[in-house]
Amino acid sequence: MISRNLKQLASDLQWHKAEDSIYGCAQHIPCTIVEQSKSIAVVFYLPHIQEITKEALDSYFTRHASRFKITNLEFSDDFYFFRIKQNLIPLAKDKIMDLLLIASNLIQENQPESVAFCAACGQPTEPDELGLYLGFYCAVHEHCPALPDAAGNVRPADLQINMDGEDIIPTDDLETENLRQ
Ligand SMILES: [Zn+2]
Hints:
Elements: H1 4-13, E1 16-17, E2 21-26, E3 29-35, E4 39-45, H2 51-63, E5 70-76, E6 79-85, H3 93-110, E7 130-133, E8 136-139, H4 176-179
Antiparallel strand pairs: 1-2, 2-3, 3-4, 4-6, 5-6, 7-8
Helix pairs in contact: 2-3
The chain binds zinc ion.
């Protein structure tokens, strides 16, 4: 079950809801937010990520880890994961929106014209060929030979973010031990 916080976020963003996650596009980049009991993971699908993009994300979100309660950043199998601590108080919806906006901006600045590749077979896809693969939202062929039961015809709305939020305030309060485990 997803929390009220994430349900509301999904409605605000016009994202889809699943059992334990919400998913949609953040400025055309497929993204999933998975909820667990004491954490959430924000997961971007970034096949063929360039080193500069990864470094930009690592660098920015390591510096701002405490602001977003980030405990871990990881790139694995074409997915970039932000792990966020949620104990009694969930991370505010506005902060998750900020994270999505900042991360997708960093990705687009460093990797402007990235071609989409199917998560199942690795071949190029059309820009709107998106679906769930292993529970994560990503580019995937609607009729992928590697995946007979591909996720269907999801047509996500683009991320709509309120730009009137607070400014990003740098913080020295790093949690680098946690980030570098
Ligand atoms: Zn495919």
